[in-house]
Amino acid sequence: MTEQLSLVEAARAARVTEAQLEALVRDFYDRARTEPVLGPIFADLIHDFEAHVVHMTDFWSRLVLGTDRYHRCVVSPHMGGRFAPEHFDRWLAVLEQSAVAVLGEHAELVIDPAQQMTHGFKRALTPPPAL
Question: Of 42, 44, 46, 21, nearest to 98 (Cα)?
Fold first, then answer.
């Protein structure tokens, strides 16, 4: 992605579509639900898979395409004790696979912000050092 373009501008230039973002979300969860670390967590937390796909497609659509459908806090659902910092390394690895599979040469449009999110989640979940 060039520095001159915002993420939304780059996604529009690459002609990323809502359908591709939904395919990305579905591909990610197909992979993640069979992943030995993430699979059991998602099995416990996601009770209505189709509703979750819509919710996560809205999230990625807001982030990548600049739509206005996602209005929730992205951090708080991950703070309930099921996720540890190391889980986000696995999340990122699976998401990178899905991004490459679905978006090909434009995978960085998802991978770049996902890397930033991974760092943010890991910071949020890591307790401060003892004094």
Answer: 21
Residue positions forming the annotated binding site: 119
78 backbone φψ class: left, alpha, beta (φ>0; ψ -120 to 50): alpha
Q: Is the pTM of this model over 0.90?
A: no
From 73, 65, 50, select the one nearest 20 (Cα to Cα): 65
Is pLDDT above 60 for 53? yes
Tell the CATH topology of 7-125: Globin-like (1.10.490)
Write down the residue that tokens 């890591």 correspond to.
126
Task: Bin 66: left if φ > 0, else alpha if -120 < ψ < 50, else beta.
Answer: left
26 closest CA partner among 61, 64, 53: 53
Annotated binding-site members for heme = 119
